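Limitations

Structures in this collection are predictions, not experimental determinations, and the ligand pose is part of the prediction. Treat each record accordingly. The example that follows, with adenosine-5'-diphosphate as the small molecule, is included so readers can see exactly what is and is not provided: the inputs are given verbatim, and the output is the predicted complex.
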Amino acid sequence: MFDTVLVANRGEIALRVIRTLRRLGVRSVAVYSDADAGAPHVRAADAAVRLPSGYLAVEEVLAAAGRTGAQAVHPGYGFLAESTAFARRCAEEGVVFVGPPAEAVEAMGDKIRAKATVAAAGVPVVPGGAEPDDLTEAALRIGFPVLVKPSAGGGGKGMLVARSAAELPQALESARRTAAAAFGDATLLVERYIAGPRHIEIQVLADAHGNVVHLGERECSLQRRHQKIIEEAPSPLLDEETRRRMGEDAVRAARSVGYVGAGTVEFIVAGDEPGHPAYFIEMNTRLQVEHPVTELVTGLDLVELQLRVAAGEPLPFAQEEVRLRGHAVEARVYAEDPARDFLPTGGTVLALAEPGDRPDVRVDSGLRPGTVVGSDYDPMLSKIIAWAPDRGEALRRLDAALRATTVLGVTTNIAFLRALLADPDVAAGRLSTGLIDQRLGALLDAAQGGGPVGVSSLSAGSPAKGSVSAGSPAKGVPDGQVAGGRAPGGAPPGEVLAAAALVLHDELARRAGDDPWEVPDGWRVGEPAWTTWLLAARGETAAVRVRGLPARGCEVAVADGAAVRARLARDGDADRVTMDGVTSRFACALDGGVVWLGRDGRSWALTPHEAGERGAGAGPGGAGDGVVRSPMPGTVLLVKVVPGEQVTEGQPLVIVEAMKMEHTVTAPADGIVAELAVRAGRPVDMDAVLAVIRPAPADPAGAPAAEEGS
Ligand code: ADP
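Predicted complex:
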């Protein structure tokens, strides 16, 4: 075994590798970019070296290995994990690359070559065609719908479905653009698009002495944007015969390229009935994000096995000795907004709670309070993995762990993951890669609203009695109304709105300090007064009235609901809010003017503002006023219209790109492009105005435009 290993990665995976190194008594060396100088992985390692040019800088990583006496480099996943150039340079420098031989990475690195190689070894592959052959011809031969894929692809990027020959040119154009930008290789392939498929993959492990074993499967069918968010082992729907055949195919695929180390052979299984064919789609020549579920059901440490194999040791067990025990499920926590098409978010972690020690729950996380989540790196923040003797209990434990997770300051998918686990089909194991898309509306509603609402009178009811007057000096506004159209994901529950107003009101009282005229206690020359807070979240605004001091006891009313007695006890990050006799706990953080509240894995960001600041429908995604905003921070890739152009609802206006992900922003309604605020190549902020669409002026002659030229 090595005595020093450099970990050429960051975040949760760097920490995870360092954990095993420590257990094995191996010295660990971290590397870090300037943005990560104080990151947890840097603190966890025995030594750390700065990489001035970041994690992809091959020569800087090698120099760091040289300076610290590292005999081996573990690349984690992403960055240099599948770089044959890096693997070759390691060999030249006499440093062991903890991964397969460069030739195997090369053979599997490109989907076209990988399919050809394993097909020649007798492994079934999805019917399709590949460049340099003509893709249109191939698509016509295999029949529509087809899936267009970048050959060098990964992470679901650039994959597009073409449902007909008419859709194919645009799919090819967009996929090619993404492929060139994201992978530096524009080569594409087309495959038969398999309807309602399942993604099942097999973990393989090979040593340098000719032994290859598999460690069973992982079911990874719960995906958004063709990317996994929940994975489990074993698959709830695989009969013994299919399992055996897939295991053998996976081992055959690994052997066909002389594989050494840990790898994953991915299959797509058509339909959910036993006996359906499992087609090879690709092999990932590295540790996978979802490897922990395999570790929990096999009791093996895959990083330890990778290191042993890299050090030349033979596999310590044979295929017959692999035992699978119980069930494990992993959920990936992403900085993304499910209600905005799962686009990456960002921000600074203001408050953080992760599930602490609990039986059979593992948390692989790279987060800490203060972590800045930007657009430089993958938006995955952490992974939560639960094990239990059976699937139902594993899902329950995972949900409990997610409920105990709070991230404030960055919008995450935690509540969405909980909604997904509660879905009846997910609970029953009826999974497919299309499930999330099919149920999106219901899942978003479940993620945002619902939940245990303690005070029903806060969300509806008769108009409140009592006088309403202009309130606090800074934020008070006249009595407001709930305004704005319904945004995806819905408005926060009344209880949350009330809690946010109490926190703001309390904050104002504290800041006012001793000046009795500034204290918003509701008393103005003997007259009890209400302060009205207008709180905006997700494009919806609600009015919440508060009278009295929250810390001592006050009254609160949401919208036109009845007033209830309330009290706020602030307690570090966790505040206790008592309303109408029921006390609940919220995590709370204030960031500038924004109040972040979290509970049960959900989080809400509420912005107090003056009346009239944001009109109906002007919020993100709102279409009412024709203002089209950027759904994410990124770069404008293409502008597809010109000022004055007539557009129809749904017509692509602008393509925004971030993290090599393209998002097409479309016209909210028929009309004329009245303003176009962007140019290709320019960066845009989240919510930045891209364009304004105004209704087309009525034709004076009254002739419908459609008749023109007919
Ligand atoms: P990437 O390397 O970008 O992750 P993959 O080839 O592994 O791309 O595919 C990612 C996901 O896309 C799969 O898990 C599956 O959900 C879907 N997919 C891939 N190929 C097909 C296909 N032929 N038909 C239907 N869905 C597919």
